[in-house]
């Protein structure tokens, strides 16, 4: 139910963006009615039962998120030009663009029951979508965040802050899924090949390990 509510909020936000563009007479920036296949595409979109998808298409905008039917998501991907989407598109679909804009760096975490900052891995994954092969020699990534988070993301993007491992939160699940470790010794050896192990040695305090434990080992 919470996912459905979040998807509806995303759709409503895109409608608000269109209304804002209409207010400032800039809606034509999104339109592409001169395209030779526009009317054929319009007929295809009209067959969709997703009312928001049809409504937004009329203003030259597409949406893409996990709450949509696979057929509707596929339609958006095929017609992609200017798309407002969730991180689903960045991680799950190889759909490069000339310019990628991250509008806001706060995500709602259902498990934590609150908002959290967009992780650096997500930022880099989204920015990897910039630049279209055979069409562009370069791409452009834009991140829009609050002023108090600006320095944080700048340091991360310029590699001035290390990226810590999040593997420990799902360590037991991954360990149970492995076939190789049969005892504690083999499990420790397996852990030694992970990025978590590297960061634990480099920055043990971030993982609840004291320096005395590192030196004693």
TrEMBL record:
Entry keyword set: ATP-binding, Helicase, Hydrolase, Nucleotide-binding
GO MF: ATP binding; helicase activity; hydrolase activity
Superkingdom in the source lineage: Eukaryota
SMART domains, per database record: HELICc
InterPro entries: Hel308_SKI2-like (IPR050474), Helicase_C-like (IPR001650), P-loop_NTPase (IPR027417), WH-like_DNA-bd_sf (IPR036388), WH_MER3 (IPR057842)
UniProt entry tagged with the keyword Transit peptide: no
Keyword Protein transport: no
Helicase C-terminal domain sequence ranges: 47-134
Pfam family, one: WHD_SNRNP200
Family: Belongs to the disease resistance NB-LRR family.
Name this protein carries in UniProt: Putative helicase, P-loop containing nucleoside triphosphate hydrolase
Species this protein is from: Helianthus annuus (Common sunflower)
